[in-house]
Amino acid sequence: MADKQATLSVDGKTIDLPVYSGTLGPDVVDVRGLVKEGLFTYDPGFVSTAACSSQITFIDGGKGVLLHRGYPIEQLAEKVDYLDVCYMLMYGELPSVEQAEDFHKMVRNHTMVHEQLNHFYNGFRRDAHPMAIMCGVVGALSAFYHDNMDFSKELYREIAAYRLIAKLPTLAAMCYKYSMGQPFMYPNNSLDYASNFLYMMFATPCEEYVVSPTIAKAMDKIFILHADHEQNASTSTVRLAGSSGANPFACIASGIAALWGPAHGGANEAVLNMLTEIGDVERIPEFIAKAKDKDDPFRLMGFGHRVYKNFDPRAKVMKETCDQVLSELGCADDPLFAIARRLEQIALEDPYFVEKKLYPNVDFYSGIILRAIGIPISMFTVIFAMSRTIGWFSHWHEMIGEPYRIGRPRQLYTGPVQRDVPDK
Ligand code: SDX
User: Fold this and answer.
1) Could you report the per-residue pLDDT of 332-387, keeping only the tens digit for each?
2) 305 assigned to active site
3) Could you give phi then psi for residue 19, rounded to 5 degrees?
4) Torsion angle, alpha carbons of 360, 255, 45, 304, to 10
5) DSSP structure class, residue 205
6) Residue 315 CB less than 6 A away from ligand 1
7) Is 30 among the catalytic positions?
């Protein structure tokens, strides 16, 4: 219900528009009535557009605040595990002990993939980018569940959630094994979620493999820090795909495709490539200058954000985790971490970055931890996609749980007016 009103005056005509307030964040002007006045709004890149209402995640970019169902990300990363966060994002509340046990059990029961899916990998070159494989195999999941595709039923929506949460790590680890020419490892359901992923990534059939609890905890924290982030590019893609009635597996595959870009989830891979290219703290000023040069397309990867104009709270937790993991692994003097810390320090003192409010984002430190764990750079965005699957699913679930319409943005047309095709 509108509690305020905005008035728009166009060509001497006054148009009253309702204004709504949320529980947190800016008010929104409901512009749906403009179309009958022959007007559209114009907002390329959706800088100031609320595409939906949602109760899942809130970001205050000015204060560096990130809440999932009201809980601060810093507290979630410290106090609960990733599957608790999955439950909360889906159902709105953190699980009780019994609810957590049931949820973990349901996820464990779905960790294997259909044996036929293994053959999909053989169609790819061994050096195929794992994100290309993930786009393919996640979309293909829907081909295996014809009996459960009536997503108007909550039961089938929940089963799809369990399947996606449980199978993404299996499919991701299979990408890595395929690239290594090693056999796929079946899930080991006696392990927790993060340990099972690391087991499928690094174990071989030849000998026992024991997962480091430190690394498993860091992995679980990385999953939590990437779980959801409001209406970002890939989540908006999933919502738009879902608005056509597409099945959740296809929608998640569309999210994976959108996430791959270096301006979005592909940035973690790009950060590591950038730090490797910089190579020495002495060369940092050269790259800072490139990032500031309008004529140079180079951007400081891992810096800047559409919403955060203060620290990305996830980057702060990630940096602390980075310190812990590198120290535990005995590589606290990792040269790339030294370059990253120095780069952050210099950039945050540089007027260009200060006035444009460019701070490190979630992707700046994550790659250094993943590399220290032994995960190859090409797998970084796959880890992001695995973690974000619950966020994508929760937004899809929230959208189809209410009456919805197909998303159909309009445009400002600047092409030729109607003209006739010339006679031959
Ligand atoms: C993610 O939306 C989300 O929530 C995404 C995400 C999630 O969890 O889903 O948080 C994950 O995608 C994090 C962002 C990862 N991407 C990068 O680290 C790539 C580097 N960053 C930039 O490409 C950029 O900052 C974006 C894409 C993140 C944000 O782009 P915007 O909001 O469109 O900002 P912009 O490009 O208009 O930049 C504003 C100004 C520009 O200068 P002017 O035209 O005003 O003179 O800041 C400059 C830009 O040139 N700028 C940078 C910069 N980022 C912005 N200059 C140098 N280096 C950078 N990194």
Assistant:
1) 788 998 999 999 999 889 999 999 999 999 999 999 999 999 999 999 999 999 99
2) yes
3) -120, 130
4) 0
5) T
6) no
7) no
